[in-house]
Amino acid sequence: MNAFRSMVMIGVGTLLLCVCGARADQVKLKVAVSHPILLAGQKQTAYLKVGLTGVPLVAEEKRAPVNVAIVLDRSGSMSGDKIRKAKEAAILAIRRLDYDDIVSVVAYNHSVTILVPATKVSDKHAIYAAIDRLHAGGNTALFAGVSKGTHEVRKFLSENRVNRVILLSDGLANVGPSSPQSLAALGSSLIEEGISVTTIGLGLGYNEDLMFKLAHASEGNHVFVESSAHLARIFTREFGDLLSVVANEVEVEITCAEGIRPVRVLGRAADISGQRVTSKLNQLYGKQEKYILLEVEVGKMSAETRLPVAKVAVNYQDVASRRAGRLSGSAAVSFSKSARVVKSHTNNEVMIAAVEQIAADNNVRAMVLRDQGKIGEARKVLQSNTQYLYDNADRYNSKRLRDYGGSNYGDAKNLSPGKWKKRRKEMRKMQFDYMH
Amino acid sequence: MKPKLVIALLLIVLVPLGLMAWLGLRVARSERAAVEDSFRKLHMQKLKDVEATILKVVGLREREMLALADSLALDPGALRAAARNNPAVSQIFVLSEKGRLVHPNIETRLNRDEEEFLTRAQQVWKDQAVFHRPAGETTQPSLSRQGWYSWYWGSGVNFIFWRRDASGRIVGFELDRYRLIADIIAKLPESRLTAPETPTGTLVLLDSKGETIYQWGDYLPKKQERPLVGRSLGAPLNPWKLAYFTPGCGPAGDFGSGAMFNLIAALIAVGLALSGLAIYFYRESSRELREAQKRVSFVNHVSHELKTPLTNIRMYAELLQMNGDEKDDKSTRYLDVVVSESQRLSRLIDNVLTFGRQQRGALKLRKTAGVVDEIIDGVLESFRPSLEGKGVRVRFVTGAPGRVLLDADALRQIVSNLLGNVEKYAPDTGEAEVHSSQQDGKTVITVSDRGPGVPSAERESVFKPFVRLSSRVTDGVAGTGIGLSIARELARLHGGDLTLDPPEQGTTFRVTLVTQPE
Fold this sequence. Notes:
- By secondary structure, chain A is α/β, with parallel strands linked by helices.
- Helices cover 36% and strands 32% of the residues of chain A.
- The longest helix of chain A is centred in the last third of the chain and has 24 residues, at 348-371.
- Chain A is globular.
- The relative contact order of chain B is 0.07.
- The interface between A and B is large, with 40 and 36 residues.
């Protein structure tokens, strides 16, 4: 669910909607308000969605070269089938890379070993041979592994490459900084450089909070694989995403108009300074939509007024053409005294995104309650979340919401101690998918 | 004698060997300490090099932030953007010249990062004096222009680099702690995939709580293991430490065993040499012993050979004495001398033979029935002429008439030796007394003279073989020095003893014998 979204809420009177689209080469921008027509004469909340969609490269276009570090856990718990499958998956993924791509392979246990320093993928067999030497044993210095992996990526860091660390771990980090907060801090520092970390959790032994936060903060992907048999598929899909990247360093700046107060950005890190909201999305894949959803407060307005909500500017690096791209758009609202008119003009797409984010938040809340041992309360939250999702799925006719409702229903049924360990990882994975 | 010799020889071998081992160990130990010390110094140097690498990262950060501070416009938008776009910096703050927090401005709307920063940095505002500390020790009231500040918050130590501009405002940069750690790790070496056969040590970077931040090397230190060397990092990373761990006991494995081998080899060589010497001495001394025994057996043999002709001489002389012409005074006198001298010679030979048997451990008694007084009387009879010739008259007070079991020859020898001593050491003293008594299966015989006596210091040593008193008493008197020894041994074989009575006047020897009635 790599969705890039943004929403602004607007409140007041009349009704007016403006959806502005722009298309500059590889990225499509769509700015929309949840309620283009708002009720006049009262303060209210609305969502502004800034959607960005990658336009897939056509066959003859040259894709962006990737600069990827594969960071593999080689602690004792990985021994046997897991390490063998991980090696196979890494080799299979590297097979898809070309001469222009950069790859490095780092393995960590209690210390870190650089199997393949960052290098052009010219001699694949040497790389395979280096990976093949890998064996498992020892502790888990995850932080150091990521540090070394990003250092390898940094050697060839370029806005025209897809810079990425792919981290595979099956266990709890126990050497060096190991808290989810520490990895989240590292992740948000890396995104400022344009490096994302994709985290692949293998089996039931890893810390999903740590893996979730690292991927979330750095705009990477987060995947849960229960069996090492599926690793090859996961690696292939991740590399498929990387090879389809159309834009890098995507920066969104939303400037709210007077009378509009930006409240919060749902589900993603953003900086709100006065009327200006900024957020960074790192990479945009072909065919994929990412959005920023901004909640705004709209002041009292009289009917028939038209009010601009926000101007949106998007800067990105077009990796195919190696040019900087810039898009802009804006949204406005009108005001009406009729609640029926307001309702009939509601933008389903924006509302679906808002519901997704709210439901994901509820899901996180339920998870925290379950962590505190409050199984009953957690179940209640999940049940009402399910209802909330089903209701909105019907209202906005959304399969995505219905699916997430089903998933929340399943969560509510899997809170018992025996099932929780696995379910929690699945929940984290779904939260990640719906937030991105 | 033999165990003594063995002990002496063992001492000859073991004492120098032990001494040498002790010295050798001391030398080896001090050598090892020296080697360890140089090993430690070597690794301390390694730690210093690593520290320099780490501090270089910090120095680079410092320069980046100085450059940033120079170019930074101090308006909230620019400050926020700078904090957001600099991966190494998590927050920027500005203090006015009066120490008031200008940015983040709590009177305006703060973003979440800023709110969190204000929470964790409360300590910093309390410690504000740190920014106003005078530079160095100079007497000038000039304030330091820039510096580091670290404080504990959350799970570790946080770092701030600050700089004062010309107007006295302070711009501070809070470093992203984890990014700093990640960048330091990136600059530090990594480990090999497979440890070689002789693994090197492992270097560990530890945080303020002693927990590992990063480690590299072939060796995995155990929990609670003490490092070979450790070092705290220089400012501003003082709360962090570097430690070096090696497998086993470190350098001892490489160097100590060599010294130990040399020492053991030297000890074995010296031990062999000393043992050889000891064996040589042992063989020499046992050869001398054998030769002495040969000489003793020669003397015994000769004595035996002498005994038979002497017995004949005595027998015929005594026959002549009995049948002699009473009128021929001269012949009678000569015969008396022959008899007495042959008796003396016979006693001497008996003593030599008895002593030889005693030395061989072959001295045994042949007990038969006999009367003590009769035996003493017989001996006195044979001594009378020579004693009288020396001016000593012996008075015999009899008191042992019972017929008892004893070795008559042995008793004769005891009494002869005692009377021989009287003859030798107490001449011209007028009277000597022999006294015998018998009671409860015990016979006591005393022989007293009025001679010069035995000095009290030598009362026991007279009974040891070959001891003759070197004084006026023995001067000019011939003797073998074995008479009393033999007499005492024979008395002891009889279950009794031979002692010297406390001196009153002259010498009194007391013979005690256990004599069962027949």
